Amino acid sequence: MVRRRHPPDRVMPARRQPERTCVGCRAKDRKATLLRVVRRPDGTVEADPTGRVAGRGAYVHPVAGCLERAARTGALDRALKATLGRAEAARLMHDLMMARGEMA
Ligand SMILES: [Zn+2]
Q1: Residue 100 DSSP SS3
Q2: What is the CATH number of the domain that holds 48?
Q3: How many angstroms is it from 70 CA to the middle of ligand 1?
Q4: pTM, two decimal places
Q5: For residue 53, what are the domain limits?
Q6: At residue 104, does pLDDT exceed 60?
Q7: Which of 15, 58, 92, 98 is 20 to 30 A from 48, alpha carbon to alpha carbon?
Q8: 16 CA distance to ligand 1 centroid (A)?
Q9: Is 102 within 8 Å of 49 (Cβ atoms)?
Q10: CA 11 to centroid of ligand 1, rounded, Å
């Protein structure tokens, strides 16, 4: 197949997926595969399964290991610049898993 009308330098690069860092394992992954937690402007922190809530977001893999680590190590607090404490962080992680279940 001859494509003289479309020289290589005009080919668009593959569309890049936005990437975010998981606060549990610190690995980068596509935003779409991670769960978002958001700290709203009023300071409340909640699971954001839609990814559209305004505020400071943190991302974590939807697996127990990453969720637990994010809560246990305080990485979630640091990412959100919040002081959740372990119990609150654990509750949020639970909410995230539930929210994901509803989306599936
Ligand atoms: Zn992870």
Answers
A1: helix
A2: 3.30.1230.10
A3: 9
A4: 0.77
A5: 19-103
A6: no
A7: 15
A8: 20
A9: yes
A10: 34
Q: Report CA(40)–ligand 1 centroid distance (Å).
A: 23
The single-letter code of the amino acid at 59 is: Y
The residues pairing with 39 across neighbouring beta strands, listed in sequence order, are 45, 56
Residue 55: inside a domain:
yes
Domain-embedded: residue 5: no
- Write the pLDDT tens digit of every residue in 33-88: 999 999 999 999 999 988 899 999 999 998 989 998 998 899 999 999 998 887 88
In total, how many domains does the chain have?
1
Give distance in angstroms: CA of 99 to centre of ligand 1: 17
CA of 15 to the centre of ligand 1 (A): 23
Confidence (pLDDT) at 16 = 76
Q: Sheet with 35-39: list strands edge to edge.
A: 45-47, 35-39, 56-60
